[in-house]
Design brief:
By secondary structure, this protein is an alpha/beta fold. Helices cover 42% and strands 17% of the residues. The protein is built from 14 helices and 13 strands. The protein has helices at 14-22, 34-47, 58-69, 83-86, 91-94, 112-118, 148-160, 172-179, 183-186, 213-225, 234-246, 251-266, 292-301, 324-338; strands at 2-3, 51-55, 75-79, 99-103, 129-135, 164-169, 192-196, 207-211, 272-273, 280-284, 304-305, 307-310, 313-317. Helix 2 runs parallel beside helix 11. The radius of gyration is 20 Å and the shape is globular. The structure holds ligand TLP. The site of ligand TLP has 14 residues, from helix 3.
Length: 339
């Protein structure tokens, strides 16, 4: 099987598993797990912020961040197809009690003038506007990179109006690599970031929330409230440290393979291939006569796994277990199937 469903399928490396055996452990709820403390410190430093908090998943990291930035009934702005709205089980409303305000974007970018328009002046009738969420890279926009200019413009407007800015940076390192830019520079204008260790970086579990000391202290309590206080969490942090130190630079290979897949698929006339910027390739299959479910069933019969993104939209994601040869082979199979 050529498994192009997600970079979440990546397995831990041998070095990560070995790191677990040697990790210094303790009770992290009491801040006694040295490995967790080390990971949190390194994560904060890497992002150029004061502090960090290890959480179980990207979904938990975004939820804890929203809970920490907001009060119940607050209004939170985000791009219409953002993961936090689309795929996080409505947690921000069900648990944090906020109301999402969706702004249609251009390849995942919130147009600054649209945000300016959307944030209304105080009025007895309106919810309190409190937070803006940027997603970088933007998953449903096809792994699109949100450039530093947009991050800055959105942050400036938000801060001017008294709102905070959170980045769903599940794949922030993919963005930094694609931009050939230091990640701390990219996130400089924003207040908080969630990033994942368990996607392209190949760690088995874990994400981090990064921000200033005061925010992280409050977030730690919110994480506890939703059951995310962990004990010997060094078993998660140890492979996480390897992910952070050793797995970032290799993301470029995933991007190169995705670009190669894009090039091959563009040769198939019935496919409409979205521009590829990182490790995600979206194809519009409207002209093939199949819908995504049928198309993916046919692909699976032929040894390829991918995921549906809409009725006629399919996503392929490259990652550490996908080689250049796999990409050539997958494209040849799809070409043959659609002939
Ligand atoms: N995304 C997963 C699925 O949920 C769709 C994937 O395969 O891409 N933010 C972004 C931008 C994400 O893409 C994801 C995961 C998350 C947050 C949530 O992370 P987890 O899965 O760790 O809760």
């Amino acid at each position: 099987m050529i498994d192009l469903r997600s970079d979440t399928v990546t397995l831990p490396t041998k070095e990560m598993l070995e790191a677990i055996l040697d990790a210094k452990l303790g009770d992290d709820v009491s801040r006694e797990d040295e490995t967790v403390l080390e990971l949190e410190e390194k994560a904060a430093k890497k992002m150029g912020k004061e502090a960090a908090l290890l959480v179980t998943s990207g979904t938990q990291g975004n939820l804890v961040s929203v809970m920490t930035h907001t009060n119940k009934g607050d209004e939170v702005f985000m791009e219409s197809e953002s993961h936090v709205y689309y795929y996080e089980v409505g947690g921000m409303s069900a648990i944090a009690g906020v109301i999402p305000h969706l702004i249609p974007g251009n390849r995942g970018q919130i147009p600054p003038e649209k945000l300016e328009e959307a944030i209304r002046p105080p009025d007895i009738h309106y919810p309190n506007p409190r937070l803006v969420i940027i997603e970088n890279t933007h998953n449903r926009a096809g792994g699109a990179v949100i450039p530093p200019e947009n991050m800055k413009a959105i942050s400036d407007i938000s801060h001017d109006k008294g709102l905070s800015v959170h980045v769903d940076g599940a794949r922030i390192f993919n963005a930094a690599i694609a931009l050939n830019m230091d990640v701390s520079k990219l996130v400089e204008p924003v207040d908080t970031i969630m990033f994942c260790l368990s996607k392209g970086l190949s760690a088995p579990i874990g994400s981090l929330v990064v921000g200033n000391e005061e925010f992280i202290e409050k977030a730690r309590k919110n994480r506890k409230m939703i059951g995310g206080g962990m004990r010997q969490a060094g078993v998660i942090a140890a492979p996480g440290l390897v992910a952070l130190e050793k797995m970032v630079d290799r993301l470029k290979e995933d991007h190169d393979n995705a670009k190669k897949l894009e090039k091959h698929l563009r040769e198939i006339p019935s496919l409409n291939v979205w521009p590829v910027e990182t490790n995600i390739v979206l194809i519009d299959i409207s002209n093939t006569g199949y819908d995504s479910t049928q198309f993916l069933l046919e692909l699976e019969k032929r040894g390829i796994k991918a995921v549906p993104f809409a009725r006629h939209l399919v996503r392929f994601t490259t990652h550490r277990h996908i080689t250049e040869k796999d990409v050539d082979e997958a494209a040849a199979i799809i070409k043959e199937f659609l002939k």
